[in-house]
């Protein structure tokens, strides 16, 4: 192992090359501390971390490290596609106290079949670091060799044999290593959860297939390693998203507050910084001296080569067979009998492989056959997932159609409708999912089924929410219909019990509406929380209905009209409801003052909702943000029960008094005097002056008879109560006579027409003199005047 500076930045990196033993161990131990001192890490004690990258050649490992840690490792020239990193290089992180190792890529053409250094470097990285970054492309997931699963298996086995301890007391490692899979070029077609599940399952299978020492036979993968995952978008196609994902991934190495922080204390090797050189040299010596990392035999190599060739040919034929159904599945169509087609293709592929590869090394053949089956399953797993997604969409669409159709019927049980539609949708999905599931593949449709159940629940909840809104709207209309008329009637006849009547009606109507909603909501399987929200909405709307109606009834014009009607009822009518005819002896001022004061006493009742029974006071509901903004006064505890402000009360009182005063003046003018006030001396004068006429009437039989008839007639009229009607008739006749006389006078004094006006001029006419013309018109006075002239 040699120590040297990096290719581009002098004095910044440490190289560990596997070509030859190199210089003696002592100089190497002294050189690494010198670099640590130069980097300022030698005196850090335990406050440092070690991370390495592992993966196939030319997959962008050095680029990833440079972006994550600010290192200066050489990157590949994409125009040449050749090996860049040779051996193992070390560089400090620019963002934290971390040592970063860039390991030579695996499966490089420069080393060819020489996999000895690949295995040694991988084992060294796994044993000496806290976090091992496994860099791989998305399309490599599910592959055995492409994802370096074979190399990891060998490294795990040797790691257990070298560092697993020698007895049962050391069976469980005290120090664990985090393996962080960084999935490159993740396009999102396959969810990250599915990719992580595949990688986790592959790692578990590798661990289960290891040849463990007897005292480690019962150990699990989690006893030695923790698995973590991250995905990065395509660096070329999505550069901005790639950089954002890299920055977020970098925080996992620097931000200790994050729950996914990678440098956890459990992974630290607990080696002081000044002893790192000796520690790593000891690990490298053990790795180099181990014989289990030697190359396989020539027979196995031949079997691997031929089996790989046969598997590649079979895979090509298999891919061509499945190509015809990929487009329909990707387009969202459910391909009928897809599972049968996949089984037929798998049967043909494995049969062809068995015929050509079964004659080679049995162990290699069995491993390659299993790898082939796994690869074929992985290649058609997108068809399986696509068929499940299409079945999911079809089942959800059918569920929506069934529920919508059922809700159009006049009477339905919502819970029964949803249960029946859910059952039908699940059966349709399961029929397709079971048909496309292949035996032996690690495919499962339970996850997609659970997603379907979640979607069906969301759709059902939305439909139930819509139906619940309809229930609330119907209840609101019922409240409005039953509440408005009683409220209007109560406020049109104000009294001290007015608010008790209004609030009692409000409480009864609102309670009936809530009971009606709850009885209907039982068939919807609404939760208590949903019922609470719906009832709160109903109470809010009911309160707004009441408040709006009260505001209408307490508007200025409405209140004045109500007060005027109450005043007129008290002032213009007596206690029996008979209209009053005011007489001079009546106490008009007292009646007016009493009616006005009693009416004004009603005005404060409109100001505030204040019943006599405090238990009837309504509880103002808490409004939503939109409702509170729309009508904040209706929900503010200080103003919710206030309908008329003191300023408006004063204004209404002044306006009412003016209208009452006008009514008083009108009554004063219409007062009828039934008795004339005549001076007493007039009676004596009438007797003296009218004595002769009275005697003439009394002693004249004709006059006396007429007097008796008039007195008898007047008596009969009074007894029959006809005085009023006769008086009214007389007044009407007098009015008509007056009107006709007025019209005649106006016609007489009006300006005569031109045909008549010419006769008044002092000129002669053809028919005679003006006097003759005047006589002809029936005007002798005018004729005399003309004759005098």
UniProtKB/TrEMBL annotation:
Residues 1-677, 723-789 are cytoplasmic. The keyword Acyltransferase does not apply. Pfam families: RHD3_GTPase (PF05879), Sey1_3HB (PF20428). GTP binds at residues 55-62. Residues 772-789 have a biased composition (Basic and acidic residues). Residues 45-267 form the GB1/RHD3-type G domain. GO terms for molecular function: GTP binding; GTPase activity. Residues 699-701 are lumenal. Residues 1-27, 769-789 are annotated as: Disordered. The keyword Transmembrane helix applies. It comes from the Eukaryota. GO terms for biological process: endoplasmic reticulum membrane fusion. Keywords: Endoplasmic reticulum, GTP-binding, Hydrolase, Membrane, Nucleotide-binding, Transmembrane, Transmembrane helix. One of its GO terms (cellular component) is endoplasmic reticulum membrane. InterPro entries: G_GB1_RHD3_dom (IPR030386), P-loop_NTPase (IPR027417), RHD3/Sey1 (IPR008803), Sey1/RHD3-like_3HB (IPR046758). PROSITE patterns: G_GB1_RHD3. The chain crosses the membrane at residues 680-699, 706-727. HAMAP family: Sey1. Belongs to the TRAFAC class dynamin-like GTPase superfamily. GB1/RHD3 GTPase family. RHD3 subfamily. PANTHER family: PROTEIN SEY1. This is GB1/RHD3-type G domain-containing protein. The gene is SEY1.
């Amino acid at each position: 192992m040699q120590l040297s500076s990096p290719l581009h930045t002098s004095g910044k990196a440490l190289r560990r090359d596997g070509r030859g033993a190199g210089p003696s161990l002592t100089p190497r131990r002294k050189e690494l501390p010198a670099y640590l001192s130069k980097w300022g890490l030698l005196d850090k004690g335990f406050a440092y971390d070690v991370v390495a990258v592992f993966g196939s050649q030319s997959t962008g490992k050095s680029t990833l490290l440079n972006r994550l840690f600010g290192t200066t490792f050489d990157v590949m020239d994409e125009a040449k596609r050749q090996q860049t990193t040779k051996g193992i290089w070390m560089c400090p992180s620019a963002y934290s106290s971390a040592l970063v190792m860039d390991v030579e890529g695996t499966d490089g053409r420069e080393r060819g079949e020489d996999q000895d250094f690949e295995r040694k470097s991988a084992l060294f990285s796994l044993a000496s670091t806290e976090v091992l970054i496994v860099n791989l492309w998305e399309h490599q997931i599910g592959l055995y060799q492409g994802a370096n699963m074979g190399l990891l298996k060998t490294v795990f086995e040797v790691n257990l044999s070298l560092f697993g301890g020698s007895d049962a007391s050391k069976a469980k490692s005290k120090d664990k290593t985090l393996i962080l899979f960084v999935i490159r070029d993740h396009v999102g077609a396959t969810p990250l959860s599915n990719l992580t599940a595949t990688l986790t399952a592959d790692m578990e299978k590798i661990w289960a297939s290891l040849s463990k020492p007897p005292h480690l036979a019962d150990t699990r993968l989690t006893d030695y390693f923790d698995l973590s995952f991250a995905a990065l978008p395509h660096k070329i196609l999505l550069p901005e998203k790639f950089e954002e994902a890299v920055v977020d991934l970098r925080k996992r190495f620097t931000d200790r507050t994050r729950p996914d922080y990678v440098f956890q204390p459990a992974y630290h090797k607990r080696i002081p910084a000044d002893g790192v050189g000796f520690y790593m040299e000891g690990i490298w010596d053990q790795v180099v001296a181990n014989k289990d990392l030697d190359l396989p035999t020539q027979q196995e190599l031949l079997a691997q080569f031929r089996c790989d060739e046969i598997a590649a040919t079979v895979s090509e034929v298999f891919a061509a067979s499945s190509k015809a159904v990929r487009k329909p599945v990707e387009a969202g169509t459910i391909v009928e009998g897809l599972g049968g087609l996949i089984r037929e293709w798998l049967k043909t592929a494995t049969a062809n492989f068995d015929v050509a590869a079964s004659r080679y090394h049995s162990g290699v053949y069995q491993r390659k056959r299993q790898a082939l089956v796994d690869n074929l399953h992985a290649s058609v797993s997108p068809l399986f997932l696509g068929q499940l997604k299409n079945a999911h969409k079809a089942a959800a669409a059918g569920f929506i159609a069934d529920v919508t159709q059922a809700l159009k019927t006049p009477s339905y049980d919502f819970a029964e409708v949803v249960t029946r539609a859910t059952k039908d949708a699940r059966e349709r999905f399961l029929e397709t999912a079971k048909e496309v599931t292949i035996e032996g593949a690690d495919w499962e449709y339970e996850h997609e089924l659970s997603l379907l159940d979640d979607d069906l629940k969301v759709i059902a909840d939305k439909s139930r929410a819509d139906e619940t809104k309809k229930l609330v709207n119907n209840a609101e209309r019922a409240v409005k219909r039953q509440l408005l008329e009683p409220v209007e009637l109560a406020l049109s006849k104000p009294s001290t019990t007015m608010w008790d009547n209004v609030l009692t009606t409000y409480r009864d109507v609102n309670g009936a509406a809530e009971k009606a909603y709850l009885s209907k909501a039982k068939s919807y399987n609404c939760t208590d929380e949903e019922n609470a929200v719906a009832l709160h909405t109903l109470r809010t709307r009911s309160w707004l209905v009441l408040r709006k109606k009260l505001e209408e009834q307490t508007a200025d014009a409405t209140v004045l009209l109500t007060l005027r009607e109450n005043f007129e009822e008290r002032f213009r009518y007596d206690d029996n409801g008979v209209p009053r005819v005011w007489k001079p002896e009546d106490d008009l001022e007292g009646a007016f003052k009493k009616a006005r004061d009693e009416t004004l006493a009603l005005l404060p009742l409109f100001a505030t909702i204040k019943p006599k029974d405090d238990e009837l006071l309504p509880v103002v509901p808490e409004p939503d943000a939109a409702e509170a903004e729309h009508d904040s006064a209706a929900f503010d505890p200080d103003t919710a029960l206030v309908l008329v402000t003191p300023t408006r009360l004063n204004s209404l009182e002044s306006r009412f008094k003016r209208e009452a005063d006008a009514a008083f003046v009108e009554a004063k003018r219409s007062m009828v005097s039934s008795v004339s006030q005549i001076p007493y001396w007039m009676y004596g004068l009438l007797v003296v002056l009218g004595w002769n006429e009275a005697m003439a009437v009394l002693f004249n039989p004709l006059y006396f008879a007429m007097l008796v008839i008039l007195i008898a007639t007047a008596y009969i009229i009074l007894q029959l109560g006809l005085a009023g009607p006769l008086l009214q008739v007389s007044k009407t006749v007098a009015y008509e006579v007056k009107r006709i006389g007025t019209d005649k006078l106006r016609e007489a004094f009006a300006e005569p027409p031109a045909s008549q006006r010419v006769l008044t001029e002092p000129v002669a006419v053809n028919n005679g003199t003006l006097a003759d013309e005047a006589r002809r018109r029936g005007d002798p006075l005018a004729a005399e005047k003309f004759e005098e002239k």
